Amino acid sequence: MSGRRAAELAGLAELGRRRSDRWLFEFHDSILEAVTWRGADLVLSLNASRLDWPREITEVGEDGQTDSLQRIELLLQDAVLEGDGLTLPIWLLDSSYSATSQVAGVGDIVEGAIPVSLSEALGISLRLGGINEDTQGYIEFQVRAKSMTHAILGEPRG
Predict the structure, then answer these.
(1) Domain membership flag for residue 66
(2) To 5 degrees, how large is the angle CA 40–CA 153–CA 119?
(3) Do residues 59 and 66 lie in contact, with contact meaning Cβ atoms separated by under 8 Å?
(4) Which of 124, 20, 111, 34 lies closest to 72, judged by CA?
(5) Structural domain tally of the chain?
């Protein structure tokens, strides 16, 4: 192997080891703490699972996760909420999130996750399901909204 090719491969390996700047919020393992209405707008308050993507293998903990938690609010404009018995808090286990378009940092958009750099998303479809932390009952609900923004509350923990 030539010296130039060896240097290229070493550079690619180093690139793969470095942490990316692509931070995401995902719903799995997040805690939904509050659901409130502001007129036609819905606010979901979460202790959200925040992760670096792609994950660096050497940083994965014993449980296979590198997540930290961060308090956020999702503001869903012109929202429709479907589902019964929304008792909180809910430990989210199942989710799907999609948007027809998202405005975020270059390369930050990953299917099913909310980029930390998100400034706005349009055409929102959100399905969340999980276990109520008090009753241990399973709860599932859906939200459709015209648009969504988020507010980050404090620093990540974990």
Answers:
(1) yes
(2) 60
(3) yes
(4) 34
(5) 1
